[in-house]
Structure formats: C-alpha cells, structure tokens
Design goal:
Elements: H1 2-19, E1 23-26, E2 39-58, H2 68-72, E3 81-103, E4 109-111, E5 117-120, H3 130-135, E6 158-159, E7 171-172, H4 181-204, H5 213-235, E8 237-247, H6 253-256, E9 258-267, E10 271-273, E11 281-288, H7 294-304, E12 319-321, E13 324-331, E14 336-343, E15 349-351, E16 358-361, E17 368-372
Antiparallel strand pairs: 1-3, 2-3, 2-8, 4-5, 5-16, 6-7, 9-10, 9-11, 11-13, 12-15, 13-14, 16-17
Helix pairs in contact: 4-5
C-alpha cells in the first residue's frame, strides 16, 4: 500500500511539474538540444534623459538691429544664448548583455516592443497604453512663425482692378520709400511706443470707447501682434529649442557609488555644443548612489539566487531587476539641478518563484509591482 501511494505521489508531482515546465535560459548558454517555440526578453537598463531648453534671438532678418540698443533701450545681449530650463527623466531599454530565451509552454508571458518583460501568467491583464507611454519621447512643440510678407517701411500705395492678379496692380500711386534706414528705424520705434501707450490705456480703462471683454481681448491681441512684428525688425525672431542628451549609467562596482561625465559644452555666444572650445563652459552630469540595497543584494546573491554555474534550477526561473535610487545632478558655473531617479542596473538581479504564478512589471522602471500564486 505504501508503495502504491509513493508511486501515486510521484505521478501527481510529475503532472504538476509538466503543467508549468517552462524554461528560461540566458542567450549565452549552450543547450545540448534545440529549443523551438520560445521568445526573447531582456532585463531593463535605465538611460538618463536630460532635456535642455535654450532660447536666443535670430537676428538674420532684423534690418534695424544696429539701432536696437539706442532706440529700444536693450541691454546689449542680442544674439546671445540662454538656457531656459533643464528637465531630468529616465527611460528603460533592453540591456543587450542580459537577454533570456523563454519556452513558455503553458505559461502566458507578455513582452513589450522594447523586449522587456511585462507580465507572467496574466493572460487577460489590462495593461492599457503603458508600454507606448513609457517608450514615447517628449516631442518638441514646433511653433510655426509667420513672417509678414511685406515691409512696413518700404511699401507703395497701389490700386487694384477686378482683373488684376495679386502682386501686379494696375496703378502704383507712390514711389519707394526714400527714407534712410535710421529714419525708418526711428519711425518704427515711435510706432512701438504708441502701441504700448494704447495698450496701457485699454488696460486702465482710459479709452473713450467702451469695449466688451471679448472685443477688448481681440484688440489687445492685435496690438501685441503689431508690436511683435515691429520689435522683430530690431531684435530678430525669438527662438526656443529643446535638445535631448542621454547617458547610460555604468554599473561597475567601483562606479555605482559615484560617476561624473561631461554632458555638453555651453557658450553664451554660440549656444550648445558637444565639442570643447575656448569660451565654452563644460556642463557635468554626476550620479551618486548610497547603495541602500547593498545588504539586500548580498542576501539575494548568496541566500536566494540560483545563478551559480551548473545549478539546474537556474534554467526554470524568470529573472528581473529591482531598481536602486540615485541622486542625479546637472551643473555648471551657471546653474545646478538635482533630482533623485531610479536606476535599474544599480539594483540586484532576482528571480520569480518557479511554478504557476502571476506577476506584473512596471513599464516605466521595470520593477516588479505585483505577484501572486
């Protein structure tokens, strides 16, 4: 009787094992037999994204730029570059050195477009658009600038008939403006002053005409547009651009505590550059990690992990990373920015329990956020 009971338990154990006998192997392994019918996934690796927004005036289309300081009382910084803002963020990508091949068999496995493990054992999990949101980059808002197609101070008065084509009037009533550039600039500056005075009157309610709130808003917008077009004759077009720099933190033991690199060079006269020059100031990216999970990583390595060579359990477990927080700083002599961000490759590599489980991973960090039997 005892013998039959033992045989029955062995059969039941074999059936249970066959029901969830998936395999997970590193792509660096050399299996003795072919393993068809599988998929690939990778451990996450964090990249730091630094979005630098800078602004400057494009003076190529400003005919009165040499009169700007005199007539508009500018501070003489036209043509210089200024960093407006710096934003620090992270994105996770597949670590090319940590790819695994999975034979899921009866286990449901979800992998996103980045080859990152999304879920295990969750056939109908509602993941939404988290994958796409995590991989999408911040696109630039391209503002289309509509330059006037005429010169306010070099025009002719014309008469059109019904049969005339645009740009080819029947009669020109006046000749080209013969004023000197300085006279034209002075007239433009006076017109700017009149527009500013008119705006102030409308805002203070000193206008002789009463306007509705909607009409007042339209009138102020017209004044702003006219003033902007006139000021561009002196200052040029105000341009704002955003450049993204990325850096992948190195996970060598000697560099996890601290690592510093030159991210780019900034010159107020020439803007942002990746090359060093005489007047350019280096902008540094620095990472410092307190390694708060040091003890946890040591415990995982020596008490939990099955990564030793020849361990038979190693091929049947899903590997994942638990990210570690790091202080990220971007600084130069002009500014200093600091933010704490999660770095996947700084944390320990762990494994899911073997068997029928349900697990869900964060699409933004790659961390395990849900697990159940």
């Amino acid at each position: 009787m005892m013998k039959y009971r033992t045989i029955l338990l062995v059969i039941i154990a074999a059936l249970v094992a066959s029901s969830c006998s998936y395999e997970v192997r590193t792509v660096r392994s050399k299996p003795k037999m072919s393993m068809p019918g599988g998929l690939l996934y990778a451990l996450p690796r964090t990249e730091i994204c630094v979005d630098v927004t800078y602004c400057h005036y494009d003076t190529t289309g400003a005919p009165f730029i040499k009169f700007a300081t005199e007539m508009l009382a500018t501070d003489g910084t036209l043509g210089t570059y200024d960093i407006k803002s710096i934003n620090l963020s992270t994105r996770v990508v597949a670590d090319p050195a940590q790819f695994y091949y999975v034979r899921p068999r009866r286990m449901t496995v979800q992998v996103d477009s980045r080859n990152l493990l999304r879920s295990v054992g969750m056939a109908t999990a509602d993941l939404g658009d988290a994958n796409e949101a995590a991989t999408a980059d911040n696109g630039e808002d391209m503002e289309q600038h509509l330059a006037p197609q005429y010169n306010l101070y070099d025009r002719t008065d014309t008469f059109y008939t019904r049969s005339d084509r645009p740009g080819r009037p029947t009669m020109v009533a006046s000749k080209k403006d013969s004023r000197t550039p300085r006279q034209q600039a002075l007239a433009a500056a006076e017109r700017i002053g009149q527009l500013q005075e008119r705006r102030q009157q409308l805002l203070n309610g000193e206008s002789e005409t009463s306007y509705t709130p909607e009409g007042l808003r339209v009138l102020l917008d017209l004044i702003d547009n006219q003033e902007r077009q006139l000021q561009e004759q002196f200052l040029g077009r105000y341009i704002t651009e955003t450049v993204r720099f990325t850096y992948t933190p190195l996970d060598e033991k000697t560099l996890i505590d601290s690592q510093t690199v030159v991210l780019f060079y900034f010159d107020p006269k020439n803007g942002i550059s990746t090359k060093e020059s005489r007047d350019a100031v280096p902008v540094y990216l620095s990472l410092r990690c307190d390694n708060t999970m040091r003890n946890a990583a040591r415990f995982v390595k020596f008490r939990v992990g099955t990564f030793q060579k020849g361990n038979m359990n190693d091929r049947n477990t899903f590997k994942y990373r638990s990210s570690e927080q790091a202080d990220v700083e971007v600084y130069s002599k002009f500014f200093h920015i600091k933010k704490q961000l999660p770095i996947a490759q700084f944390g320990p590599t762990m494994e899911l329990p073997y068997g029928k489980i349900k697990a869900l991973f964060d699409a933004h960090t790659g961390d395990l956020i849900y697990i159940a039997n």
